[in-house]
Amino acid sequence: MIYGSNRDLKKVLQSAREQRIPVFLVALPGQPAAQVVLPNTQAYLETVRINMQHIVDNSGGELLFSKDPDDVVRLYELLGRRLGMAYSLGYVPSNSLTDGSFRRIQIKTRDDSLHLSQSREGYYARPR
Fold it and tell me: How far is residue 110 CA from its own chain's centroid?
């Protein structure tokens, strides 16, 4: 866990869902085990990667790994192009209760050849 407690991570994940702002992270790949200095470092780095994935999944964003530090620029350019083509869908839910519960949503296309690169897992039905 990269935060002080499991509760802290849960707060971050909930905030990532509630803010409705996709989080995009660009990271370098993990170092080979032979380069790890401390015994717990490899486990720590794996936990960081998992937590980063949870954050982007909860926000509707994406985690991209760069091959090396020079590849980071290419990934930011890729993100810029993707965000430039971003769109937003809206709908009125059939369940009008605003009870604060998390409602899962799933977006599908009629044409299986079309691919959605991201979508939010759901939303909170909060009172306005």
Answer: 25
Residue 84, by phi and psi: left (phi above 0), alpha (psi -120 to 50) or beta? alpha
Q: Sorting pLDDT into bands at 50, 70 and 90, what band is 1?
A: very low
- Residues in the chain, how many? 128
pLDDT of residue 85: 72
- Total-model pTM: 0.61
Domain chopping of the chain, boundaries: 6-124
Looking at residues 3-15, what average pLDDT do you find?
Answer: 78
**Hey, what long-range contacts does 117-122 have (CB within 8 A, 24 or more apart)?**
117/62, 117/82, 118/22, 118/60, 118/61, 118/62, 119/60, 120/17, 120/20, 120/59, 120/60, 121/17, 121/57, 121/58, 121/60, 122/17
Give the whole-number percent of the chain exceeding pLDDT 90: 3
Residue type, 6: N
Calpha distance 10→95 (Å, rounded)? 26
